[in-house]
């Protein structure tokens, strides 16, 4: 197989942010680690908006990295200012100011780079005709694809798309501009792709349906590469105090599409029926609207059972999973659903909304409910809380199925197969 250049720009442009374990960044990191240990010739690159080009880097992996998996081996201080390279619609004032803003941003970013990046730690790389694999966000991919078009550089591009959620009509009204940008970025990514990868069969179906309906451009070959259930543990410190009573865990659960409303209302129904109400730990970034929702007067009777754990590190997150009564993921839609897989990997029951992507992740190991019906969720929570015999049977079933779950090595291998099959087709045609 030819050399593969694996894009770590997602980690570079997200460096130092509060979303250290954001799902897409986690995917980029975990697959990067497995590719670094694969037998294939894989090299690692980042796109620098300061230079409008890619650089090859040598990341630290395993025990040599701070997180025990993979880190860029670049200082956080080198993180550039990011301005969009293109927009879906014309805008007089913005388009007039854009060249000036780009020059200022590039100047500041170059200064950061020169001050913080050690000489010799990066190398210029020419990606003309080379294989580039990217699992990052479309908005970051579209930036460097536009920059390469301007420079006349064309790669053999293999992107992985994670979901089409912003294109759905129920997206939050404030996200209308986000949805337009999302569609614009995805169009650029798809038009440049030699083959399109997706994180689930569900996402593959979504993309093909949007294309058929004319809401997305025509597609290259599309291959689903389902993500992993594996959760790799780390040696980071654990500074958490857990409740003395059983608790449910929600990871990244917010109002809206993530459907915190259903979970909180299920707890309220249990309390009103005089049934045991487990504590609830909400782990993730702090969201004002989430805090405001659980502080509403109608939830006063259960408010003391809800606790926030902000931005847990990887070791703390694993600790939360392992000690939870169950993980609850009540989303109306997901592209994959990492928390459900991670809970099962660590032996914790998962209670998931009955949607296609989460069925892919949980299979017959998870318990499913109607995300529009809090009572159906309340019934499952009540069963798991009070029927200790059935709970033990479920835990044993999950433990026995551990070897059947997908690992990040499986994901990396499937990506290599998808790329190599394209090469084989090219050879046959030639």
UniProtKB/TrEMBL annotation:
Residues 243-392 form the Glycosyl transferase family domain. It is an enzyme of class 2 (transferase). Keywords: Glycosyltransferase, Plasmid, Transferase. It comes from the Bacteria. GO terms for molecular function: D-inositol-3-phosphate glycosyltransferase activity. Its EC number is 2.4.1.250. PANTHER family: GLYCOSYLTRANSFERASE WBBK-RELATED. This is D-inositol-3-phosphate glycosyltransferase. It comes from Sulfitobacter dubius.
